[in-house]
Amino acid sequence: MSQLARFPEGFLWGGAVAANQLEGAYQEDGKGLSTADVSPNGIMSSPDFSMETFNLYHEGIDFYHTYKEDIALFAEMGFKAFRLSIAWTRIYPNGDEQTPNEKGLAFYDRVIDELLKYDIEPVVTISHYEMPLELVKKYGGWKNRKLVAFYECYAKTLFERYHKKVTYWMTFNEINVSLHAPFTGSGLLFEDGERNEQDIYQSIHHLFLASALAVKAGHAINPNLQIGCMIASMITYPYTSKPEDMFKALQQDRHTLMFSDVQSRGYYPTYVKNYLEEQNITVQMEDGDDHILREGTVDYIGFSYYMSFVATTDPEHLKDQTGGNLLLGVKNPYLKATEWGWQIDPVGLRTVCNQLYDRYQKPLFIVENGMGAVDKLEDDGLINDDYRIDYLRAHIEQMKLAVGDGVDLIGYTSWGPIDLVSASTAELKKRYGYIYVDRDSEGKGSNKRYKKKSFDWYKNVIATNGEVL
Ligand code: BG6
């Protein structure tokens, strides 16, 4: 490996979580209902407003009450950073109030202070796969422009409250989910079940405006804040070297890159404008929107990476589908997959890093990566998750090579350092953690925490700044 392939001093090693997937306490201290609270089968499937179905998100892993013990374990692993999200509904329970809920703000004061006690840098996602349910019911979700101001007000409240303690922020988790799962991403419901592309793209425009206004507001409050975007990276390979497959791969990538293009460069690329025109989609824009986008470009590119995708023009290959975090994908014959069908591709991470850095020349932050697997708690209290260690080692090796390629990589927060409820399938059977939580998908178990084999392994990775994998 080249001498240049070394992680920089101060590299932000850690883990990442989302409020709705671990906090529980879904009605405590004035919290309002969120879209996740009505999504018992995973926040990407259809909501169930009856509230009668069992919903694992309601209890999570009870982090709301166990955060001190959990953060102590992260500190023991030597975390330099911890990515958490703030539940919008703890701060503005319905989303459209004039004043925030002090008890919600106070909870995150306590969490942030606990992290700082151990010199762990808090990295905050302002909105991670949840929004106040009331904004869906009363305003129809993000297709309504009013949400831009509600979000701006919420983001400002957070910046004002925490700017002295939190430097790293992200505006929307995996903002491109709005294209693939419109309820999760934008709070959109389609009565006849048919996707309405007009509403989807209108909502996306509003998300872009909200993100840009938040970036601007954050910088005005404290110019030192680093505010990033967050995309689910979905790098696509052509199935064959057929030129048509290559072009299809490029087009498929644009469904992802259009988000970071707008958030990073501050304007819609021509390929998006042409696509909208071809599809007869007219996004309502007001005078001054261009200006807002230009003034609110992000400081860094945050992204998640779990797998790569394949594009093909051959209907035969299309038949061979496999699972994925936001989409089903075409099977890549060269890759193995997790039990959930997510194709394991460490080299793809190096490629993504280079692709994004070549395109934007902004610092990159890998804010999610990891392997969802079924873990077994042995009688002696051990969990031998060698498969997880292998997965992470292979990905970190490729990150290191990307640094050697010249990519400015500032951190790595692997997904779910402590087991939590999955986003796509709302189960606890699929685990990502270094810390095992004794709780199953029916919500049964002692909720006790156990260190997995990967706990000590990751601790050593951090202690050696990635030199010993
Ligand atoms: C990402 C999300 O897409 O993937 C997380 O940002 C999510 O919220 C993670 O948990 C893993 O997906 P899943 O469905 O296995 O939980």
From TrEMBL:
Keywords: Glycosidase, Hydrolase
GO molecular function term, any single one: beta-glucosidase activity
A single GO BP: carbohydrate catabolic process
First and last residue of the signal peptide: none
Gene3D superfamilies membership: Glycosidases (3.20.20.80)
Catalytic residues, chain numbering: E368
PROSITE patterns cross-referenced by the UniProt entry: GLYCOSYL_HYDROL_F1_1, GLYCOSYL_HYDROL_F1_2
Protein name: Glycoside hydrolase family 1 protein
Keyword Hydrolase among UniProt keywords: yes
Keyword Hydrolase attributed: yes
Lineage: Bacteria, Bacillati, Bacillota, Bacilli, Bacillales
Membership in a protein family: Belongs to the glycosyl hydrolase 1 family.
SUPFAM superfamilies per record: (Trans)glycosidases
GO cellular component term, pick one: cytosol
